[in-house]
Design goal:
The protein has helices at 2-7, 28-37, 88-104, 168-172, 178-195, 200-210; strands spanning 19-25, 45-51, 69-76, 109-111, 115-118, 121-132, 139-149, 217-221, 228-235, 241-245, 250-253, 257-260. With 267 residues, it is α+β, with helices and mostly antiparallel strands. The structure holds biotin.
């Protein structure tokens, strides 16, 4: 598979000799974290056919069967304060919309912050993780992990998620080349990396265009708080969701579980 992926990446691509492929790994994010701690360079990429301990947001697991999805993590070493990377997940999500459009000819939407969706169903998830250098307080490494459902049919998903999940093949009605799609992901992430710190406005403008949460009624579940209801009105320059509550107050929300009314079961 690695040869197929490489065949879709231009010869002079600066990350081309930093791509590591595994038939099975616990988690590409975990493997890349181990590699980062051993000094792996900026632009290192880990891809696996299958993960045995794929991880999602909020400590959830991410089912990662072999031959079906694309499980990829990319290592960035921007060397900046963590406050300058608040928009990283948004940047990665917009880059993944570009990759899907390039590879499959459809543009998914983004459910704030980190889900790619198509026809109201989840196509992909993103998990970003930062390591901070305790001496300098700067980012030592940032890992962007992406899992995209690629070749599944409905029956390939666990029954518990069959109503909410979709794959690129299901969206397009065609077989999607996983290697070509993985190569597109690497190339669009590289483009994102080039403007990550200097092109924040451009990145967030694109994110706002793709984000389907804006303008929708939502429920918000934050640890230790009762569920709150409101309307998502915008995404701010840090990637936080601006929520307006019934009493007219507004809050910039940067964590918690946001459900959109009419989607994934929030009716
Ligand atoms: C989510 O939907 O909550 C995020 C899912 C992120 C899954 C990807 S798969 C590749 C990378 N390795 C992991 O263990 N997780 C991410």
């Amino acid at each position: 598979m690695i040869q197929h992926i490489l065949s879709h990446i231009p010869q002079n691509h600066p990350w081309k000799d930093r791509i590591h492929w595994f038939p099975t790994i616990d988690s590409t994010n975990l493997e890349l974290k181990r590699m980062a701690q051993q000094g792996a360079p900026h632009g290192s990429v880990v891809i696996a056919d299958r993960q045995t301990a794929g991880r999602g947001r909020m400590g959830r697991s991410f089912l990662s069967p072999g031959g079906m999805g694309i499980y990829m993590s990319v290592l960035l070493r921007p060397g900046c304060p963590p406050q300058q990377l608040m928009h990283l997940t948004c940047a990665a999500a917009a880059a993944m919309c570009d990759a899907v459009e390039e590879a499959a000819g459809i543009r998914p939407g983004i459910k704030w912050t980190n889900d790619l969706v198509y026809n109201q169903k989840k196509l992909a998830g993103i998990l970003t993780e930062l390591g901070i250098d305790p001496k300098s307080s700067l980012v030592d490494y940032a890992i962007v992990g992406i899992g995209i459902n690629c070749c599944q049919n409905v029956k390939d998903f666990d029954p518990s998620i069959q109503d909410f999940a979709v794959s690129l093949s299901m969206c397009t009605g065609k077989t999607v080349d996983r290697s070509a799609a993985a190569a597109s992901m690497i190339c669009t992430l590289k483009k994102m990396d080039r403007i990550l710190l200097t092109g924040k406005k451009q990145i967030l403008d694109q994110y706002r265009q793709d984000c389907i949460t804006i303008g929708r009624d939502i429920s918000l579940l934050r640890p230790g708080c009762p569920v709150q209801y409101g309307r998502a009105v915008d995404v701010d320059d840090n990637g936080s969701l601006l929520v307006q509550f019934a009493d007219g107050s507004q809050e910039a929300v940067n964590s918690g579980e946001v459900s959109i009314r009419g989607m994934y079961g929030y009716i």
